[in-house]
Every structure is written in structure tokens, then in C-alpha cells.
Amino acid sequence: MKNLAAKEFCWRAAETVIGGAVVVLALLQLMGKWDGAINAAMPLVGVEMLLQARREWSARRRLAKLSLFVALFVLGCSAVVFLL
After folding, report:
1. What is the pTM (predicted TM-score) of this model?
2. Distance from C-alpha of 49 to C-alpha of 19, rounded to nearest angstrom
3. Which residues, in sequence order, are CB contacts of 74 under 8 Å at separation 6+?
């Protein structure tokens, strides 16, 4: 049980760090300090949604599937923009 709580804490910590990074990158973009910040923030939003889908999978399956679909869409769009 202790190991399960530690794993859940690690997942929540990862979500918090990634969410904070998205906020910082969005602020940098909005303030005009770094014009390419949105290109770094969008894949992080996709990863954040993947983590959300993992967290919600057992409780709210429909929400998890929607989050998974949107995360894959965002990551796919980010990959296309990055490669082009």
C-alpha cells in the first residue's frame, strides 16, 4: 500500500511540474520574451492530458477516452508543426 501511495505521489508531482512548465511557457509567449514558447508548450499539454487520462481511467472511462483522443490529436498536431 505504501508503494502504491508513493507511485501516485510521483504521478501527481509530474503533473504539477508539467502544468507549471506550461504556465511559464505560456507567460513567456504572451509577454513576447520567447516567440517559440508555444512550440514547447503544446507537446507538454498533450503529455499533461495523457497523465490525466491515466488518472481518470478507472473512475471516469468516458472522460479518460476523450482526454486520450485530444492528447493524441494535440501531440500529432505538434509533431506536424515541429517537422514542417
Report:
1. 0.84
2. 10
3. 42, 43, 45, 46, 49
Domain boundaries, the chain: 2-83
Q: Which of these, 34, 39, 41, lies nearest to 19 by C-alpha position?
A: 41
pLDDT score recorded for residue 1? 59
- Spatial distance between the Cα atoms of 70 and 42, rounded to a whole number of angstroms: 12
3-state helix, strand, coil in the chain (%, to 5): 85, 0, 15
Residue 4: pLDDT over 80: no
Tens-place pLDDT, residues 27-52: 999 999 998 898 899 999 999 999 99
Output phi, psi for 80, to 5 deg. -65, -45
Q: What number of helices (H) and strands (E) belong to the chain?
A: 3, 0
